[in-house]
Amino acid sequence: MTFSAQVCIRLADASFDDYVLGADFSAQVSGYASPEFNRPVADWTLRSIRAYRKDYGIDPAEFARYREPDTGGAIFMAWLGEKAVGHVVVSRHWNNLAYVDELAVDASARNLGVARSLLDVVRFWAVKQGLPGIMLETQNNNLPACRLYERCGFRLGGIDYLRYQAIDAASHETALFWYRLFADG
After folding, report:
1. How far is CA 64 from CA 23, 67, 71, in A?
2. Are 29 and 153 in contact (CB under 8 A)?
3. Are 125 and 148 in contact (CB under 8 A)?
4. How far is Cα 135 from Cα 100, in angstroms, rounded to an integer?
5. Residue 92 burial by CB count (10 A; 0-12/13-18/19+): exposed, middle or buried?
6. Considering the entire predicted model, what is its pTM?
7. Per-position pLDDT tens, the chain of length 185
8. Helix 143-151 vs helix 114-128: crossing angle, to nearest 10
């Protein structure tokens, strides 16, 4: 399937592990937003911090089961020409929504429509599965992702201030749960 002139999306194949291990999924973090329901991301208060690089440490084996048929999920890879540049892992969640377990784009391919194309494929997959919408989670220090989800029609539906406290008690990272219900348009 192709969803834009440049980005080609295909089911993950044998190249998935090498692509993940060779990609740069890190991101620059420069602050923590104070999320608010029913307010645009641009209007959230941002507390600036000393910038640091966050490495998401993606493990290709974590979702390997979804590369097999009839597992309730799928892994799609995005390609620009002959280079794999992104992926999305989607599954059927207990609440009957498509759940984006992981969405990642290599740093070299950001702002080229790769993530949006992957989200378009998730929507297509969810509709084919007869699911009423999509949900996913990101953090309040990943504002580019928050802005993307907002542009793609997702709404903030949940805020969990404690989710990351067990990893780092001093963390100000907050889990943000985003939803796109197809009945909403």
Report:
1. 17, 6, 10
2. no
3. no
4. 6
5. middle
6. 0.92
7. 434 458 999 999 999 999 999 999 999 999 999 999 999 999 999 999 999 999 988 888 898 888 888 888 999 999 999 999 999 999 999 999 999 999 999 999 999 999 999 999 999 999 999 999 999 999 999 999 999 999 999 999 999 999 998 888 777 899 999 999 999 86
8. 50
**Which DSSP symbol is given to 31?**
E
Task: Write down the residue that tokens 């941002």 correspond to.
Answer: 46
Give the residue extent of every domain in the chain: 7-132
- β-partners of residue 176 are 138, 159
Task: Quickly tell me which residue has 């992702």 as its tokens.
Answer: 145
CATH class of 7-132: alpha beta
Amino acid type, 114: V
